[in-house]
Design goal:
The protein has helices at residues 3-21, 29-38, 48-52, 54-63, 73-86, 91-109, 136-158. The protein is mainly alpha-helical and 162 residues long.
Length: 162
């Protein structure tokens, strides 16, 4: 998916998750969700994050393939544990980053290429939908995802005890 799709899904997903779990939506958590939603593409120098952090992206791209380890459950869990251990994020920031990252993986699961969820196993997991990045179907699906998440967040706000 395109960067704007990842950022949109990641930030709205973070807001929905925060509403569901009763976490306060602090302004500083949104950049963490954006960073998490873009982070898996650091292995691709032509991605938005790769172009802005070429000193990381170019060497990494020589070591690993795009949609390899950075698009796996291993990277999500290991990255979260490292960030927690190193103390780089307060609890809300870490949660926002991880939600953004997870939603990036889920969004890329919807694409033709899929993701190696169980890396280092080579099997790629793909949804039956198989969206082409940048196509009209991506826009429609992202809009439907956002509507669904905003509807859920609205229901949570209206009926917090449910």
């Amino acid at each position: 998916m395109m960067a704007i799709s990842h950022v949109t899904i990641g930030t709205v997903g973070w807001a929905t998750f925060a509403a569901y779990t009763g976490q306060p939506l602090q302004p500083e958590t949104f950049p963490a969700a954006v960073l998490g939603s873009l982070a898996p593409d650091i292995d691709y120098p032509r991605s938005w994050i790769g172009r802005n952090l070429p000193f990381i992206s170019r060497p990494l791209a020589k070591l690993v393939s795009h949609r390899g380890i950075t698009h796996s459950s291993f990277a999500l869990i290991a990255g979260g544990l490292l960030l927690y251990q190193w103390g780089y994020f307060a609890e809300g920031l870490l949660a926002a980053f991880l939600i953004g990252y997870l939603l990036h993986l889920l969004a890329d699961w919807l694409t033709i290429t899929g993701i190696p969820l169980l890396w280092p196993l080579r099997k790629r997991f793909k949804s039956p939908l198989r969206i082409r990045t940048g196509g009209m179907l991506e826009i429609y699906v992202v809009v439907l995802i956002i509507i669904g998440m905003l509807t859920a967040a609205g229901a949570i706000a209206a009926y917090p005890s449910c």
